Amino acid sequence: MADAQLEEVVTDPTAPEPGDPAGSRGKVDFTGVRWGSVEWTLLCMLYLRSCESRLDRPILGDHFAAHDVARIEYDWERVHRAVRPAINQFGVALRGAQFDVLITDYMTGHPDATVLHLGCGLHSRAMRLTVPPAVKWFDVDFPQVIALRRQLYPESGNYRMIGSSITDRGWLDQLPVGGPVLIVAEGVLMYLTPEEVKSLLHRLLDRFDIGELLADLLSPWGPRLSRSGIIKWGTRDGGEITRWDNRLHLIGDRSVIAGFEKIPLRGPRLLYRMQRAIPAARNYDRLFRYAF
């Protein structure tokens, strides 16, 4: 059944799901997105989330992603061949679901917080999660990424988008000062150099006096295995950035593939079980939670 659902995405990637309001919102043309560009990688991630949402028992269940894929005009069949969703959709879903739980928990405890989503890509998290009315949510990414986002999602209420590289300094002036704040960096910091990460953290902690940071960090294998050199930084332990700035305190961490038992398909579940049994594979990408 699940395999048939995945095949449906390939044969007609623009078909909305039953009851999908995307069909009434109109198509958006992303065919100008260059293959292999930053924006292309975000479309790949969107497609993986879309595939996972169509399973009978999804882990993340990002139906916004399925709606967006139905709206976006792009060569989704070619994307499917490139990203191999039969396996890779589950890694994306496991990591995303863990972030979702921690973000929701923080907003529940701090219903007037600021949420700062760094490198938001084409993620629908601000719309998909239950966000308290007083929470101020900022999605930040490169200007060309935000330009794509604006074709999918409108700004409204306390939701804002900022088009800037997170390594630039000026975009912080658009944010409130103080706290509490939740800084979310999913699949982001490994693409910065250590010096860029240090500088970014110092500026954020100077701006906000209390809050938490959620970030997944790769092991040192990350840069070594990156043939293109796009991955710039890996760390042996989450304590490294607390030594860069002693205002940060590590309060929790776990492998991003924790919860693999929820994978509904037997073959992929077995592969992730094998990965979980190998320390180097299990710890390749870990989700860290910091307080300050």
UniProtKB/TrEMBL annotation:
Coiled coil: none annotated. Residues 1-26 are annotated as: Disordered. Keywords: Methyltransferase, Transferase. The keyword Nuclease does not apply. Residues 1-10 have a biased composition (Acidic residues). GO terms for biological process: methylation. One of its GO terms (molecular function) is methyltransferase activity. Gene3D superfamilies: Vaccinia Virus protein VP39 (3.40.50.150). InterPro entries: Ppm1/Ppm2/Tcmp (IPR007213), SAM-dependent_MTases_sf (IPR029063), TcmP-like (IPR016874). It holds the Pfam family LCM. This is O-methyltransferase-like protein. It comes from Mycolicibacterium celeriflavum.
